[in-house]
Amino acid sequence: MFKSRILGAGHYVPERIVTNEELSQMMNTSNEWIVERTGIQERRWFTPGVDTVTNMSAKASRMAMERAKVSPKEIDFIIFATITSDYFLPGNGVLLQRELGLTSIGALDIRNACSGFIYALSVADQFIKTGMYKKILVVGAEIQSSALDKSDEGRSSAVIFADGAGAVVVGRVESDQPGILSTHLHAEGAHAEELYCIAPSSSGEVRISKELIDRGDFFLKMNGNAVFKHAVVRFMEVIQEALDFNGINKEEIDLLVPHQANLRISQYIQQKLQLPDEKVFNNIMYLGNTTAGTIPIALSQAWEQGRLKEGDLVCLAAFGSGFAWASALLRW
Question: Which of 53, 191, 311, 327 has minimal Cβ neighbours within 10 Å of its Cβ?
Answer without folding.
Answer: 311
